Request: fold
Amino acid sequence: VSRASAALADGSRLPLRPLVRSFFARSTLVVARDLIGCLLVHDSPEGRTVGRIVEAEAYMHDDPGSHANRGQTPRNSPMFEEPGRAYVYFTYGMHFCLNAVAHTSGVPGAALIRAVEPLAGVDLMRARRGKAIRDRDLARGPGRLTQAFGVHREHNRLDLTHRPLYICAGERYPEEAVKSGPRIGLGSTQDGRAWRFHVAGSPWVSTGPTGMPKLAVARRRRAR
DNA sequence: CAGAAGATCATCT
DNA sequence: GATGATCTTCTGT
Reply:
């Protein structure tokens, strides 16, 4: 845990500088990479939560696994809109996932925020997640993260460059500290278009030590 | 309108 | 490693 996180731990008098829109108006791949180390902040009615992004995933338009791959639908329409917005969708009947819309020149794309290191508002996160949840599990995974931060359907399309839900510049991790690899699962690309980024060795990432986590759905699909 | 799949997680063995 | 929870969205007819 770095000095910065210790400083953040006591509360909210830190310099939170929201990212500007041009940050998101780049290739989805680069945005996903550069989100590593940035701070996710939610100023909700219940209080503020802050976490350092340690894992993100790029969904490019030509990735078969991207919601936008087969054209625009009501659900994925935020991916076709202005970069810097949130794309929040509901999945598996229980979970929300938070993406930052990122692309250039109208080509749809989004970066899924998969895990953060809790920095502030830990008590609030635990209140939302459950009393017995260990710190490590508060926001390790896209569904857990949205639950800990109180992100719901209503946050879809919100502008991530300002309150209440925003992303701020943080420490940039050096290249050697960030691992990347192809996302796995059905329709995952072998050509390097669908990429996951995470902080190497961080206990806060959902990615396992040996590589990518298994996808239950792909497994079960295979079994049938 | 029915059916299937899903950018997941908690829990059990 | 395996299973159930739970429901939205999309596709095909």
In short: Confidence is low (pLDDT under 50) at residues 5-11, 186-193 of chain A. Residues 28-35 of chain A form the longest helix (8 residues). Chain A is about 20% helix and 25% strand. The helical segments of chain A are 3-9, 21-24, 28-35, 122-129, 142-149, 216-223.
